[in-house]
Amino acid sequence: MHSLLALSRLIDGITARIGRSASWIVLVVVLISAGNAVIRKLFNVSSNAFLEIQWYLFSAMFLLAAAYTLQRNEHIRIDLLAGRLSKRGQAVLDIVCTVLFLLPMTAIIAWYGWPIFMDALRSGEMSSDPGGLIRWPVLMLIPIGFTLLLLQGVSEIIKRVGFLQGLAPDPTEQTLDPHKEEHV
């Protein structure tokens, strides 16, 4: 179990680095959006590429930060059942739901997203909008984002099993300081 907990720490470190990096995309989107608005108002010029890059980056924010959000236990939940359970019961519920729902869903989306990305890459698929962008970069985010989410789901299972065995702290009580560097 100790080697699995080490694997979990490795996954958590990778997830944290990618999640913190993805948070900078917000600034890029704001700058592109503001720049596009200023250019459009001042020079009456616009481009579909500016709009599409905003959509691509918006997708990147969510797909690359989903695993980080799971790691920080900040996904939206309905605690009708979990709120009535003990910490151990909540850990068991998290394990069961992750195994039954999260892992299969992320594996299926990553699996089926890969050939869609590869087809777009091979064909050089472009947006149908005038001045639009190539599609493969945004389509690549689907298998990458869902694979990261799948790996973080595995890490969450390991931490909860470790907690149930008394080998790890309660993962829901760990507060992750966003300013603290996490080491892999």
From TrEMBL:
It is a multi-pass membrane protein. Keywords: Cell inner membrane, Cell membrane, Membrane, Transmembrane, Transmembrane helix, Transport. It comes from the Bacteria. GO terms for molecular function: transmembrane transporter activity. Residues 30-160 form the Tripartite ATP-independent periplasmic transporters DctQ component domain. GO terms for cellular component: plasma membrane. The chain crosses the membrane at residues 21-39, 53-70, 91-114, 134-151. It is found in: Cell inner membrane. Coiled coil: none annotated. Belongs to the TRAP transporter small permease family. Part of the tripartite ATP-independent periplasmic (TRAP) transport system. The complex comprises the extracytoplasmic solute receptor protein and the two transmembrane proteins. This is TRAP transporter small permease protein. It comes from Pseudogulbenkiania subflava DSM 22618.
